[in-house]
Design brief:
The protein is mostly helical. 76% of the residues lie in helices and 0% in strands. It is built from seven helices and no strands. One of its GO terms (cellular component) is SNARE complex.
Length: 263
């Protein structure tokens, strides 16, 4: 059974998984709505992996909290804090998955989280007992008797002092593993950004090729239009120069036709 510290560590790790999922959904929404592109198989795989990570972590947290309630929690307020943090994680996951309801490329219904009823732990009320008999005691010794040095977290300090060298080494290794996982999350995010940048670069190259073809087509049409305009100007010039000769020939033909008809 996991302890309180392990559950808190898993809760923090799940928050990072939710941040990663939020980033993936935001990039996916930008890809579909703004760039009007279809998500690739790698994009769908990144989304599915993020969903599975969150679901797996939520299942672990829920199971550990339920086991903690059955075996007895260290303090009711600590237990309620764990339950509250779990509820926040679940609500955030539910909100993120609701944004994927209209996604036609991934069936979000397959990645629902089955939330169980977590037992509540009641905090016992404080009772005050009164006595008719009042004992006269000196206040100064009582203060000195109950005085303790101030510490930020006595439980953490006591647990740290009670740890052996192998336990401290194992805890340090666990922290290194957690840092490696966080670095892995950052690496995946950078890789997705790089993949999107390459994809956008390819789209820009395709648009540049289309613009170059369009420019060549416009230049070719302009050349043909200039050639036709020059030919039309030449024809009009010839008509102006030979207009009188054509008129004489036409009138002569008309005169010959009239003479033939009248005779």
């Amino acid at each position: 059974m996991s302890g309180v510290k392990d559950i808190k560590s898993l809760i923090n790790k799940t928050r990072s998984y939710l941040d990663q999922l939020d980033s993936v959904i935001e990039e996916r929404d930008r890809l579909i709505t703004i760039l009007k592109l279809v998500p690739s198989s790698n994009d769908n795989l990144d989304l599915i992996n993020s969903l599975n990570k969150v679901i797996k972590s939520l299942n672990y947290i829920q199971k550990d909290i339920i086991n903690l309630s059955k075996n007895g929690s260290p303090k009711p307020e600590i237990y309620e804090e764990l339950v509250s943090n779990f509820e926040d994680l679940y609500n955030r996951y539910d909100q993120l998955t609701n944004t994927l309801t209209g996604d036609i490329y991934v069936d979000i219904n397959e990645y629902g989280f089955e939330k169980q009823d977590i037992p509540k732990v009641n905090i016992p009320g404080k009772s005050v007992r009164f006595s008719d008999k009042v004992e006269e005691t000196s206040p100064v010794p009582e203060i000195q008797q109950h005085f303790k040095p101030y510490r930020d977290d006595e439980e953490s300090v006591a647990s740290f002092e009670s740890q052996t060298n192998p336990q401290m080494f194992a805890q340090h290794q666990q922290q290194l593993i957690s840092q490696d996982e966080d670095l892995g999350v950052l690496h995946d995010s950078v890789r997705r950004q790089h993949s999107m940048g390459l994809h956008i670069n390819e789209e820009i190259d395709d648009h540049l090729i289309m613009l170059n073809d369009l420019e060549l087509g416009v230049e070719r049409s302009q050349f043909m239009l200039n050639s036709a305009t020059n030919k039309l100007k030449s024809f009009r010039q010839k008509c102006r120069e030979n207009g009188s000769l054509v008129t004489i020939v036409v009138l002569t033909v008309i005169l010959i036709v009239l003479l033939v008809v009248l005779n």
